[in-house]
Amino acid sequence: MAAKRVALVTGAAGGLGTAISTGLAKAGFRLALFDRAPLSPGYPAFDLPASEWTAEAVDVADFRAVRDAVGRIGDGLGEPAVLVNAAGLGPPFVDPAIFERPVDLATVDADRWRRLFDVNVAGAFHAARAVAGPMIARGGGRIVNVTTNLDSMLRPGVASYGASKAALEALSAAWAAELDGTGVTVNVVIPGGPADTPMVPDLPGLDRASLVPAAAMAPPVAWLCSAAADAVTGRRLVASGWVDPPAGAAAGTVGDPIGWPQLAGTDRTVPMAGGFERPVPASDS
User: Fold this and answer.
1) 70 touches 129 (CB < 8 A)
2) Residue 256 forms beta bridges with which residues?
3) Catalytic site includes residue 43
4) Which residue of the set 29, 34, 53, 161 is catalytic?
5) What is the CATH architecture of 6-259?
6) Which residues on neighbouring strands pair with residue 184, listed in sequence order?
7) E-state strands within the chain
8) β-sheet bridge partners, residue 195
9) By three-state DSSP, how is residue 195 classified?
10) Residues 25-74: pLDDT tens digits?
């Protein structure tokens, strides 16, 4: 029997990362779990023998720490066939009361702004950089990044969080194009609204039952990591209301393109330099 593939999930100690890890375990993956925080009591939330999962305390903002930890995974469980970048700091990291008292450009703490980008953007880059080469050498792999909806990217008062996710969205679109033809796919999954995680604090009048369950992230991520999604890259999937596409569905019909490429060229009057034109796929026009 072939060995199970290994999935690396960052931010796995809680929230979306825990839900995604649980879904991948059910889908038959071994798990390598990274998080700066210790695993919560009662973890793991999945049913795997100890020989099929490992957890490490890793600060994804530290490239060398990430690179070395990925090396240890390869020596133990095996090289990751899947990377899910779920690690992230939310708006409350900037200010615990940010949803009630938005933080603007004149008041945001510069150190916290930088740390949020170090985790949300650089952290995803560090993990992707560490796994991409081996994935290409093996002829395939999956990279899945967790971003957010456009409204959140542009929302005033929480601009540091929104801008970090917009940056990861742009990176995801570029990585998908850069890795096209290597067998390594890059896709994005978003909850589809505020998710029921500690990132969304209890607020006056908030009905948590109205939030997207963290578990909703598991099915689309697991599908992207299945053989059915071998040709799917450069797409963004919305977890809320997700239904697996029918067998044989064309890749261009799954979700939507990352980064809103239909806007490409609408804000310039001269051609891009260096041949970096990116035509909009016919199915997305």
Assistant:
1) no
2) 236
3) no
4) 161
5) 3-Layer(aba) Sandwich (3.40)
6) 141
7) 6-10, 30-35, 53-57, 80-85, 141-146, 184-190, 235-238, 256-257
8) 212
9) strand
10) 999 999 999 999 887 777 777 889 989 999 999 999 999 999 999 999 99
